[in-house]
Amino acid sequence: MDDSDPHPLTAARGARGLSQTALAARVRQAAARHGLRSGCDRPRIRKWERGVVPDADSQLYIAEALGLPTDAVALPWPHWLHGTCDGAVLLTPHSAVPALREALTPVERRTFLTLSGAGLTALAGQWASARPAVALDAAPGPPETGENLVDVLRDSVDRLTAAGPAHEPHTTRLLTAHLHTVTDLLETGDPRPATLQRLHDLAADLAHTLAWRHFDRGTHPLAARYWMAALHNTHALGDTDRSAGLISDLAYQAAWRNDHTLAQDLLTHALTRARHPAARSLLHLRLARSLAASPTPGRTAALHALHAAEHELNRAGTDRPAWCTWMSEADLAVDTGQALLDLGDTRPAKQLLTDGEHLLPATRDKTRGIVLAYQAAHHLAHRDIEPAAHAATAALDLARRTNAPRCEQLVQRLTPAFHPYAHHHAVGRLLHLAGNTSTP
């Protein structure tokens, strides 16, 4: 933190319209609720804002005085002061480290893990209206030890991320340890802009990877915190397209959990600042999926979003941001097909899902498994039992080969509907395979 920056306690107090005297009074009231007395006064608040660290009890009273959950203090002082009552970390020029610390705090050290939809929407709205961050100057300076360590970390992270799915339990632990190191370096390491840029970029990559891994395993609150940590770091880099993509990942998670109102709110905010056509195509496509899957489908809006997604993808060309190079005609076909299925347009939907699945490269087998599960659900809804069983079996096999529990969960949800048809050979094979559950 620069000397010119306000202390996080000053910022948290100011955000709530509290003077030092008013905050001191609230701290005393919090202590009284615990049957204790506090001698907190304005001079003590001033000392804390000048660098004196409050004791553990005083930090609990400060949390209550600011309307924060008391387990927020599981983070080191003063990082937990960046939080809000909705569970999000406020987006500021220096919020990247607090957001990373929040994601990395062990679950056993907190009782409060829930992140509200209001908190996510507020964070996305704050990002949408924020002044663009000043991009860090990446001009290289004289080589230093810190740079060599960043090179080592980057090489290790790339190798760990590329390791096969069978190694994910081990590589996830190692990637988490690397993120701890990167966070420490951001807080105390080489302050040169070129090094900071590389560290923020590495932190964003690590947090993004860990978010998807936790999402695949159903640990949704932790996945959301990693996505938010990645967002804070891309915001520090001034990379609005990538930040918009991370908000759309949070929206994807919300839609997966059937919270389509939240998904649409997040995507609407993300679209206000996304600029690259490939990024905008992805956002429009996810918006269309959510609109089509809503309890009261927005047909006209969904079709408009599908048209926009196709238009933007046609404009995208080959020079794309690294984080969405995978966005392709296959994804457009698959997600358009699923959206049309949800809207009841079954004939074109079936063809698009088939075409999209064939277009997917072998490196996208996790996505292929999801598509096959969608196809199985479609066949099953139309009582096409044999094709449904074959698609579900193929999806389950891919899910286990690629260590994709999220895909396996989709298939397992379908299996009760197959039981009345257990006499079919293909269904019997599926039910046998589904009963032999794998361990992620």
Q: Could you characterize what this model shows?
A:
- The protein has 20 helices and no strands.
- By secondary structure, the protein is mainly α.
- The two termini are 41 Å apart.
- The model has no long low-confidence stretch (mean pLDDT 88).
Helical segment tally?
A: 20
Quick one: overall form? elongated
Q: Residue ranges: pLDDT <50 for 5 or more in a row?
A: none
Strand percent estimate: under 5%
Q: Tell me about the largest β-sheet.
A: none
Gyration radius from CA atoms, angstroms: 24 Å
Question: How many runs of DSSP E, i.e. beta strands?
Answer: 0
Question: TL;DR?
Answer:
By secondary structure, this protein is an all-alpha fold.
SSE order and pairing:
Elements: H1 8-15, H2 20-33, H3 42-49, H4 56-65, H5 96-104, H6 117-129, H7 145-162, H8 168-188, H9 193-216, H10 220-237, H11 240-256, H12 260-271, H13 277-293, H14 299-316, H15 329-343, H16 346-359, H17 365-381, H18 385-401, H19 405-418, H20 425-435
Key structural traits:
434 Repressor (Amino-terminal Domain); mainly alpha; 440 residues; 0% strand
